[in-house]
Amino acid sequence: MCGLGIVVAGGRVPVDVHAALSAVLGRIATTAAAPVGATADDHLARLLAPDTEIPWYRSIYASVRELIRPEKLPPLELTSRPVAVKDIWGEGTNPRRVAASVFIHGAVFASLILIGTNDKVQKAIKNVVLIAPVP
Known about the structure:
This protein is mainly alpha-helical. It has helices spanning 17-31, 42-45, 56-68, 95-117, 119-126; strands at 5-8, 11-14. It has a two-stranded antiparallel sheet.
């Protein structure tokens, strides 16, 4: 018996560490042993869930049957209550921010139009060679 113990409200209770360790190791040894007749490839049989081995025609039949005659369930009992939540968009819309957004989007759109209508860009687009893939 070791000098270790557990402190409880009534005082210190001695613990036999060696006996506890041997009991745990004994349980591990009995549960971790390979089953009789097990081979090295048995783990491969447990990779797929058992319901994946159902034939496809039975699965389709069960799906159609459930679609036609769904399972009758008891009425749903709701226990939750709605809670007031702060608006996600805040108090309101800032007019300065709206104006800035419209201005920036308009500037980007106008610059794309100007670049696309430039003569040098039009000539460069005409010189692009497209290669068709080989059939």
